[in-house]
Amino acid sequence: MRYYDAHTHKIYPFKSDIVGVYNYRIGEICRTELNDFFSAGIHPYDVEKCTAEWLNKLERVVTDSRCVAVGECGVDKRIADAQKQLMQFEFQAQLAQRIGKPLIVHCVKAQNEVLKVIRRLNVNVVFHSYSKYSEQLSCFSNVYFSLSGRNLQSSVSIDLDRVLLETDDSNESIEQIYSDFAALRSMSVDELKIVIANNFNRVFNR
Ligand SMILES: [Zn+2]
Fold first, then answer.
1. Is the pTM for the entire model greater than 0.90?
2. Centre of ligand 1 from the C-alpha of residue 74, in Å
3. What spacing in Å lies between the alpha carbon of 105 and ligand 1's midpoint?
4. What spacing in Å lies between the alpha carbon of 159 and ligand 1's midpoint?
5. Do 199 and 21 form a contact (C-beta atoms < 8 A)?
């Protein structure tokens, strides 16, 4: 049974027992050839750099068969300009809906704005590096939560069948995150591997 890393910025090939989804941030050098799967999106941090050319590129890249999701994208109120971020997020949400691939969401202090956009979607939505349990979000049957090492402690009330695990931009290994999360939920790593593999396949239609 393999490990599934639902969201990572690492650009080296994975070990054979890890399935990873490399997050390609449009605007960076494209390294998608190094991973099994990737997601592609315009990160809220790049809001001011994004051009029409970036949007065209994104529309092209997401049709690649190894591209399993649109994103990460979203709204982060710690940085300006939130209104512009929201427009770029809506564009990407509609793109995900149009091509029928999941959406990976980065949401910081902007849950209401993000909710308004995602409540119109039929595709799966993954809140990445998610830390706060939200009953409002859990009402949506297509919403999942991807947890990195720093979110594990605060995630105890999230249903297991809504959980994915990720390394994001940290140096922690996915094996370590599995082992820490299994301990938190009083289960074995082998049991956890089955749960996460099922969730991963469900979210990304594998
Ligand atoms: Zn990320």
1. yes
2. 11
3. 9
4. 22
5. no
Ligand 1 centroid from CA 8, angstroms: 6
* Ligand 1: centre distance to CA 191 (Å): 26
Residues, CB within 5 angstroms of ligand 1 (ion): 168
How confident is the prediction along the chain (206 residues), in pLDDT tens digits per residue? 999 999 998 876 678 899 999 999 999 888 877 777 999 999 999 999 999 999 999 999 999 999 999 999 999 999 999 999 999 999 999 999 999 999 999 999 999 999 999 999 999 999 998 766 677 887 899 999 999 998 898 888 899 999 999 999 999 999 999 999 999 999 999 999 999 999 999 999 87
Residues 6+ apart with CB under 8 A from 178: 3, 165, 189, 192, 193, 196
CA of 9 to the centre of ligand 1 (A): 6
* Strand spans (E) along the chain: 3-8, 18-25, 37-41, 67-76, 103-108, 125-128, 143-147, 163-165
Contact 62, 95 (CB under 8 A): yes
Q: At the fourth CATH level, which superfamily is domain 3-203? A: Metal-dependent hydrolases (3.20.20.140)
Write down the residue that tokens 């995602």 correspond to. Answer: 118
**How far does residue 169's CA lie from ligand 1's centre (Å)?**
6
